[in-house]
Every structure is written in C-alpha cells, then in structure tokens.
Write a structure and sequence with these properties.
Elements (H helix, E strand, L loop, with lengths): L5 E6 L2 E6 L10 H16 L5 E5 L11 H4 L7 H31 L4 E5 L2 E3 L1 H8 L2 E5 L3 E3 L13 H8 L2 H10 L2 E3 H7 L4 E3 L2 H16 L3 H14 L4 H15 L2 H13 L19
Parallel strand pairs: 2-3, 3-4, 4-6, 5-7, 6-9
Antiparallel strand pairs: 1-2, 7-8
Helix pairs in contact: 1-3, 4-5, 9-10
Length: 284
C-alpha cells in the first residue's frame, strides 16, 4: 500500500516510516492522521517487524498540524455562519479525538518506536515525538510547543506525556512561552537520548540501536514496553504485581534458554515472533 505522507520500508525486522513531504515541511494533513495509525497497526497486527523507526526528510522534521487543511469553510449567509459556529465545538472535539488516537497508536503498539528528529519539531511534531519510546536528534534540532504562539492550547498529547519525560517546571516554561528548546537542552533535560552532528550520523546510530533491540526476544521486549507504560500511571506495588502476573502467564523458559545459549555461542538468537493480532484488531 502507498501512503500520501510517508514511505514505508521493512528490512531485517526493522520497519522504517519516513515522512516524505519536505517541501511542505512535513506538515500533518488529514490523510496523515488517518494513515499513521493504520500503518502502525498493520505492522503490529501482522508482526511484520520487531522495531519501528520514524524519521523525516528535508531540513525540518515536522511543522506540525496543517491548520489550513482543517479550517472550516466560511459562509456569506449569516444564518449558515451562525449554524457553523454552533457546530464548531462538537466538530472540533471529534477532530481532537481523531488526532489524539493517531499518536495513542504509537504508545499502544507492541513494538518499540524510535524517532529520529532533524531541524524543527514543532507543535504536532512534539506530540508525535513524545508518544514514541525513544527520541534522537541532530545538533540543529529544536522543539517548540507552538500552539501557544498561535493562541491555542496543545491538545494532541504533549502535556500528559511531556510532563512525565522532563521536569514539570520546564514543561510549563516551554508551554507558556512557546520558546524553542534546542537539542542540547533537550538531551540535558532527558527528552532526547542522544544528539548527533547530522542526520546521516543520526540515522546510522538510530538504526544500530533498532537492530540491537530487534536481536532480542520479541516477547521480552514487548513485556518491557508494556510494563514501562503501565508503571507511568500506577503505583510501584500495582506495577510489581502486574509484572509478576505477566511473567507467570507470558514468560517462556525456552526463550530464556535460547537467549542465554545464543549469547554463549555468540550467534543471533532464534526467537519466536510475536503472534499476529486477531482479525480486524484496532487500537481505536
């Protein structure tokens, strides 16, 4: 299947989703919000890969949501304009839920998702980055909660996720001012795992990490993601109990033996892939 806003390749158990609209600064048009969760769900449901890498093209990672594409058409008829204004709130709510679901799919995916960011990561770009498992950046990258600058409050996922990833005071500063946070500051704050000199070096480094993850037992990696996500919203006691239940039902002695044996023999592990999802499975 072809996609309007990105290209998809899968090689050596790593899926690569690459935003491909550099002339439009990889802005997020309506088809982006529909197709991103679709491709994530497809990779996961069919167990097509063990890791996903999201990257971009051009000098800007993403300018965020294309507001013009979502703008309602005006009307010269005063009565129709009044009706449109009344409908606006309910329509906006539905749109917000749709865009939120697109990035919720990244978090709900069983596979680790790594994002490689160059240049500007603005508005919706920050929402997407915070929904990924790990973030990597070029030295010229920067992050902006741009919604404040245009009189909006970010509503696609930045706040509930970012406040768990960097200090709350810094989140408030970035949100209230709309200022840029450069790659070095983002790494110092803990938002970014590593900073690379340029995009070529970044992609090389990110894919090396992705392949290292892909070499591990898929069920073990899935369990790690599930537990880390669970722990963000639960107490330590609840999380420990859930981990014990998870391992009691999911842990496979054969996979542990294969992991240890392959390490001893210095060879790739022969691990069982994650099962395919049930037909018509959807995160939404």
């Amino acid at each position: 299947m072809t996609y309007e806003c990105f290209d998809l390749t899968i090689e050596n158990n790593v899926a690569h989703i690459q935003l491909n609209r550099p002339k439009k600064r990889n802005s997020m048009i309506p088809s982006f919000w529909a197709q991103l969760p679709q491709v994530i769900e497809e990779i996961d449901a069919e167990a097509k890969a063990r890791v996903i890498v999201i990257s971009s093209t051009g000098p800007v990672f993403s300018a965020g949501m294309d507001l013009n594409a979502f703008a309602s058409k005006g009307s010269s008829d005063p009565d129709e304009a009044r009706r449109n204004k009344i409908r606006h709130g309910a329509a906006f709510y539905d749109t917000a839920l749709k865009t939120q679901a697109a990035f919720n799919a990244l978090e709900a995916c069983r596979l680790p998702i790594l994002v490689a960011i160059q240049g500007g990561c603005v508005g919706g770009g920050v929402d997407m980055a915070t929904a990924c498992d790990m973030r990597y950046a070029t030295a010229d990258a920067f992050f902006t909660i741009f919604e404040t600058v245009i009189g909006m409050t970010a509503d696609v996922g930045t706040f509930p996720r970012l406040v768990q990833q960097i200090p709350e005071g810094l989140v408030r500063e970035l949100a209230y001012t709309g200022r840029r946070m450069g790659a070095a500051e983002a790494k110092s704050a803990g938002l970014v795992n590593q900073v690379f000199d340029n995009q070529e070096e970044m992609l090389e480094g990110v894919f090396a990490i992705a392949h290292e993850i892909a070499s591990k037992a898929p069920l073990a990696v899935y369990g790690c993601k599930r537990m880390i996500n669970y722990s963000k919203d639960h107490t330590t006691a609840d999380t420990l109990d859930y981990i014990a239940i998870w391992n009691a039902s999911m842990m496979q002695a054969q996979e542990m033996q294969e992991a240890m044996q392959s390490n001893i023999e210095k060879r790739p592990g022969d691990f069982v892939e994650l099962p395919k999802r049930a037909p018509n499975f959807s995160f939404r």
